[in-house]
Design brief:
2 helices; mainly beta; 4-stranded antiparallel β-sheet; globular; 49% strand
């Protein structure tokens, strides 16, 4: 694994974890490169790194990366409690999903960067810096919507909407998985040329960039009690991990634009219990990889023939596989309760073998190769 470089998100003491912030892994050794409360999910685009802070006052921060160093650029409100996912949307917005509050936020990246640049050029912007000296993006660059009230049959987990992940669609919209309501909410992200707020902060936010809004398009249903968590695309179909029922679902758009179920499969035998699906990815050949916490396995499925079948499963190399990343020949598993990333070689059938290395990282929850 020579040359492997990773950014790793983790839970810190705020969330009961053992990390101190975002870690950078090089040559199998992890070091903290940004101190931040509960940076549980990261997204990387070019030299920018975006990290949620999964706290009750939820926020998202932007950093400029140079080698292993991260330079803080700005912070924005996440628009809710416990942001657990962030993605750079093709629309030009940063989309953040807030689990506890069931809200979704879009931050105009152009407006946020413009504002940060103006603050760097002159510290005369009233209210531009927070109590810790960070550049705080104004509300004019941010839009937040609440998912509709919802509940599901798993009473202790589906007492209301819980936004868990967003993914862009081939149609140019964005889908948000609601674990609490067993639904996928589709939005259009609109970026305007104007819309800057009043006052100094609004003027800077609008310099060369406009406001952002999230416009509801439609809602798609998943099976009751599924608890949709993470999603991935393959061959125009959406593959969804049901966190609560242990099943993977394949959905396809009909002529009306609604995503309809075409296949689903259990990822393990026996009762669900405390077995919870987490991250899911599909490769170009139709191999679908999903992690199962509790049972602590990585399951590989085949979606190449238009359906879904289980190819096999293997131990994840630790406890509570929260997230993983695929690199050539290996899958790297963030085993949250093992304080390590397991390095698993991948066989010809896509099923991982026994761990060949363990990279010590406190409470890892997200891995991004860089």
């Amino acid at each position: 694994m020579a040359g492997l470089r990773l950014l790793v998100g983790s839970y810190t003491a705020t969330g009961g974890g053992n990390a101190t912030g975002i870690s950078f892994v090089e040559n199998g050794v992890a070091a903290t490169v940004a101190v931040l409360d509960d940076p549980s999910f990261l997204a990387v685009s070019g030299d920018r790194v975006y990290a949620v802070s999964e706290t009750a006052e939820g926020s998202v921060s932007a950093f400029r990366r140079s080698g292993s160093a991260l330079e803080h650029r700005w912070t924005a409100t996440a628009g809710g409690n416990a942001p657990c996912h962030v993605q750079v949307d093709p629309s030009g917005a940063l989309v953040v999903t807030n689990y506890v509050s069931g809200t979704v936020t879009a931050v105009s990246l152009a407006a946020a960067e413009s504002f940060a640049a103006s603050v760097a050029a002159s510290d005369g912007v009233v209210g531009a810096r927070g109590s810790a000296g960070a550049v705080v993006v104004p509300a004019s660059a941010i839009a937040t919507v609440a998912l509709p009230a919802a509940s599901g049959p798993v009473v202790d987990r589906q007492d209301g909407p819980h936004a868990h992940q967003s993914v862009p669609t081939p149609e140019g919209t964005v889908l948000v998985a609601d674990l609490g309501g067993d639904t996928l909410h589709e939005f259009r992200v609109d970026m305007s040329d104007g819309g800057a707020g009043a006052g100094a902060a609004g003027a800077h936010a609008g310099a060369g960039a406009g406001a952002v809004s999230l416009v509801p398009v439609r809602v798609h249903d998943v099976a009751p009690g599924a608890g949709p968590r993470h999603m991935t695309w393959f061959d125009g179909d959406l593959i969804v991990a049901g966190e609560l029922d242990g099943r993977v679902y394949r959905l396809r758009r009909d002529d009306s634009g609604v995503l309809r179920l075409v296949a689903s499969v259990d990822t393990f035998d026996g009762p669900t219990g405390d077995s919870l699906l987490s991250h899911i990815e599909a490769d170009e050949s139709g191999r679908v990889t999903v992690a199962v916490r509790g049972r602590d396995v990585i399951v590989v499925l085949d979606a190449a023939d238009g359906g879904l079948t289980v190819v096999g499963s293997a131990p994840c190399g630790g406890a509570w596989p929260r997230h993983f990343a695929r690199v050539p020949g290996f899958v790297l598993v963030a085993n949250e309760r093992s304080d390590a990333i397991a390095v698993l070689p991948v066989g010809d059938d896509g099923v991982p073998g026994e761990a060949v290395a363990q990279i010590a990282v406190g409470t890892p929850t997200c891995i991004v190769p860089v």
